[in-house]
Amino acid sequence: MSTTANEGDAGAGDDLGRAWTEVGVPLLSPRCPVPPREQAWIEKMLAWCVERVGDLPLRSRVVEPTTEFFPDPYLGAGPDVLRVVDRVRVLLGIDADRVEVELAVNEASGDLDAMLLQPGRRTVVAGHYQQRGERGYIRIDPLEAGDQSRLVAVAAHEFCHELLLGRGGVPGADGKDHEPLTDLLTVFTGFGVFTANAAFSFESSPSGWRTRRLGYMNVPMFGYALACCSWLRGEVESREQPHWARFLDANPRGYMKQGSRYLEALGPSPALAGLRSPRNG
Fold first, then answer.
1. What are the distances in angstroms from CA 5 to CA 115, 189, 199?
2. What angle is formed at CA 61 by the lines to CA 170 and CA 265, rounded to 5 degrees?
3. What's the mean pLDDT in 42-64?
């Protein structure tokens, strides 16, 4: 199970955004930021998360890129990386004896997720998870050490593999959509700020600006998932975003805001609506 990171020159056919229109829907009516198929999947699988994982994450704080959650200085050295990764483990409530973590370059050979996508673009396996007996084994590429927030995103994704597939496992978690489900679980468990921001970014390089992608869900999907989780917590307000949303980059924050307005106006599917806690609702 791998976290993939795609890199390429900006402007090389990148889909930087989508627009959807619906026949018969007024222009000013709130619209969901993702197509109906993706909307249905997000709502269905969040309901699945509540059923199989429990609602404790929805009653816990969203993790923020602050010293409150990550108090130690970070310089990007090996011990710093391992300390941050272990902090993610602690925040997710995973016992130390369940997993082993190693810093090592992840080989792309033989990994379908790491195939070259198109000329000028390459895919890097940023993190990898596998089961070894009764323990999970996580390998983090040290090239991810330069950006602490991106490292947190990679670690959260890999530890969510452990939550789904590790000791005991979660029934039904190993289906064909396991990788995007693992992305979605990072949002559900409070790490969505990190994984949404890492899903797509621009960075400068010696040859100019380049794009970087991480994970399996796109930015609109992350934005709508964040909106749904905020709605389930009772945080969604049409005019005001929850405090933690200020840590989101512009694109995921915009999609989340659009999703929040849609949910306040029209609501999610009945399956998800029935899970909103009376305490929050």
1. 11, 21, 9
2. 90
3. 93
